[in-house]
């Protein structure tokens, strides 16, 4: 039986913005500046940050991830949600129907998002070739174990397969803290 190891990426709170919202928050024709590349090809953490304001609290210096997206979306942990005073569902990225909104403030203006706040569902990005070799299909739900002092088996980890992806498991800070996991650690896909 082959062991399939996957690198883990811990995803802190961050926001994806549309070009229109970037223009409101930073000024017309503004272009995000890449701070560092992310694990997924073409994706980057921008130098720019914003403030997000909920009914109960706010967070400053929320990192923008680029490039611009078709819909603006704030990804937070359940702990963040309590602090902000919002009740976002656990969702796959991009699935924002029926989600709460939030106020986003930048140096040039403010945007009222009507929807788009989610707790991102844990998932693994697979390149199409890897997924085929490992017998994994897009949207398949996996069981994944992380070792260590606080070893945990994560259930219902969504497989996301594309020829645009690089192998990486994404969990949020609450999940990582519970399991004692850091970015760069590895997890094992369970096949039982």
From TrEMBL:
Keyword Acyltransferase appears in the UniProt entry: yes
The pathway where this protein functions is: Polyol metabolism; 1,2-propanediol degradation
Superkingdom of the source species: Bacteria
Q: Name one GO molecular function term.
A: acyltransferase activity
Q: What keywords are assigned to this protein?
A: Acyltransferase, Metal-binding, Transferase, Zinc
Which cofactor is recorded for it? Zn(2+)
Reaction(s) catalysed by this chain, per the record, are:
propanoyl-CoA + phosphate = propanoyl phosphate + CoA
Query: What's the EC number here?
Result: 2.3.1.222
Q: Which InterPro entries match?
A: PTAC (IPR008300)
NCBIfam families associated with the record: PRK15070.1 (NF011652)
Q: Which family does it belong to?
A: Belongs to the PduL family.
Q: Relate the protein's function as given in its record.
A: Involved in 1,2-propanediol (1,2-PD) degradation by catalyzing the conversion of propanoyl-CoA to propanoyl-phosphate.
Name recorded for this polypeptide: Phosphate propanoyltransferase
Which organism was this protein described from? Paenibacillus hodogayensis
């Amino acid at each position: 039986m082959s062991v399939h190891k996957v690198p883990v990426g811990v995803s802190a709170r961050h926001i994806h913005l549309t070009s229109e919202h970037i223009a409101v928050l930073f000024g017309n024709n503004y272009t995000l500046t890449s701070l560092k590349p992310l694990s997924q090809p073409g994706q980057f953490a921008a130098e720019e940050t914003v403030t997000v304001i909920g009914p109960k609290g706010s967070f400053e210096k929320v990192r923008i991830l680029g490039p611009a997206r078709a819909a603006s979306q704030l990804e937070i942990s359940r702990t963040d949600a309590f602090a902000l005073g919002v009740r976002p569902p656990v969702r796959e990225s991009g699935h924002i129907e029926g989600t709460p909104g939030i106020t986003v403030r930048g140096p040039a203006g403010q945007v009222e998002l009507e929807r788009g706040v989610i707790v991102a569902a844990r998932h693994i990005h697979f390149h199409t070739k890897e997924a085929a070799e490992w017998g994994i299909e897009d949207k398949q739900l996996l069981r994944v174990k992380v070792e260590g002092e606080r070893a945990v088996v994560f259930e219902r980890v969504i497989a996301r397969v594309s020829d645009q992806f690089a192998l990486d498991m994404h969990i949020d800070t609450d999940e990582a803290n519970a399991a004692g996991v850091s970015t760069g650690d590895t997890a094992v896909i369970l096949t039982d």
